[in-house]
Structures are given as structure tokens and as C-alpha cells.
Amino acid sequence: NHIFPDCRAIKVALRQESFDLLLLDWHLPDGEGVDVLAWAREHCNPCPPVIMVTRRAEDADIVRALEAGADDYV
Fold it and tell me: What is the pLDDT of residues 6-17, one digit of tens each?
């Protein structure tokens, strides 16, 4: 298990290591998890599966996360 405090730390780790799965919260101190998700899909090869874990439950939020490349949304 790795816990990262913000978007920047997640991106640094993704550049240095590979992961089996990412669990991303939508709300991070320095940005949005959905933006990290889009970044990971563009820059990680291969990109691990990504599950958005958030309290946001509006249809538009779910669609946005899935369109950004989330494998699931909880």
C-alpha cells in the first residue's frame, strides 16, 4: 500500500514505479483525482486500472471519470 498526499506526489510515484491498481479520490489538496487519472492514461504505459473512490455521485461526475479512463467508480 502507498498513500500519496496530493496530485504531485502521485505523478512522481507513477513516473518511478509501477502499480497494480490506483484508487483515486476526486478531491485532492492540489487538484482533482480525475485530472490525475487523465494524466496517468496519457503518460503511463501501461497504465494500471483506476478506480475513482469518491462521494461525488452526480451522473455528470460519473460520466466525466469514465470518459477520462476510470475502470470503475465507487
Answer: 999 999 999 999
- Strand-pairing partners, residue 73, are 52
Question: What tens digit of pLDDT does each residue of 48-72 get?
Answer: 999 999 998 899 999 999 999 999 9
Q: CA separation (Å) from 68 to 2, 5, 22, 55, 58?
A: 23, 21, 14, 18, 16
CB-CB neighbours of 9 under 10 Å: 15
DSSP structural state of residue 47: P
Backbone angles phi, psi at 61, to 5 degrees: -70, -45
